[in-house]
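If you are new to this repository, start here. Below is one unmodified record pulled from the training split, so you can see the exact layout before writing a loader.
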Amino acid sequence: MIARARRHRHREVGRPPKPILLASIPFIEKLEPSPKRSIEPVYLEPAEVEALRLIDLEKLSFVEAGTSMRISRNTIWRLVESAREKLIRAIVEGREVVIRREN
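And here is the target side for that same chain:
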């Protein structure tokens, strides 16, 4: 199953990002720590989850993953770095991990 993920810019400068091809949509919506704490959750984008899957699970190179998702190697690198930072923050600080859904 191939889906397209829409990305957004944090600022209004520059052109809008291209849609990213996702080979799979994440099955789960969130991961909750035990014991549960009441702090802001960490939000992962579907594109970040797909980039992590391709790089860390499928063991593809950044170039191969970029070709698969139809984006550049540098964009894959940024997505993976962002996702890894968020996941480490969630583990260390005991935060909930929420995977955003596309509208």
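Two things worth knowing about this chain: The chain has three helices and five strands. The chain has a mean pLDDT of 85.
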